[in-house]
Amino acid sequence: MSTRARHERKEETRLSESEYRDRLRELPPSAKLVAKILETDQPLSQGELATESLLPDRTVRYALNRLEETELVKSRYSVTDARKQVYALRL
Predict the structure, then answer these.
(1) Which stretch of DSSP H or E encloses residue 23?
(2) Using one digit for the tens of pLDDT, what is the confidence trace for 55-69?
(3) Across the beta sheet with 73-77, what order do the strands follow?
């Protein structure tokens, strides 16, 4: 299977609520806060997440990296500004 095909398949994968909670339980508090914000308002950019969470940009970036590593968050380029990525939960 090609890398692109795996990536597209990964994009389609949705998590069950219990699987989402199990993966989230192991993450640091900053990642949990970012995920909680995305539960109520998504998609958001890194800057918007920093504003909403009151966390430093660097901490939000770390949280997003951890959420992406555990496949809890997906990213895509913003429709309004192609220079920015926006993030949403895989629920």
Answers:
(1) helix 17-25
(2) 999 999 999 999 999
(3) 44-45, 85-89, 73-77
